[in-house]
């Protein structure tokens, strides 16, 4: 367990999260997700977590493992075509993880998701958080549209609103 990481998570305040992801930014992200789901039959969720606390922090839970927990908690895996995708940002670590259900993951692969994550992280390092999220939504949407084009009568299975933890 890294003292530096613990300190970063303990000192990361909720106000930092709300300063970056204001209600207006969150509304634009939600709209981008709604718009993206018009061009594909997939399901996309965005979650931003300011910092780990409690058990995940003391267990030194890696961002990927935390993203898998969130994917499960939000039941993103529970879609008709197994094509749910989570974009997870752990702000204190400046780490992005994309967790995709098996239907879409076997078509895009880990390398495809990793490329999107690294592009988003580059935007975040430059302080362009909203642009980074929008870039990620657009890139994931292109993959979903390629493999799951929209179908008449498809329903929106998951909420589009971003989750702030």
TrEMBL record:
Residues 19-141 form the TPM domain. PANTHER family: BLL7265 PROTEIN, UPF0603 PROTEIN YGCG. InterPro entries: TPM_dom. It comes from the Bacteria. It comes from Bradyrhizobium aeschynomenes. This is TPM domain-containing protein.
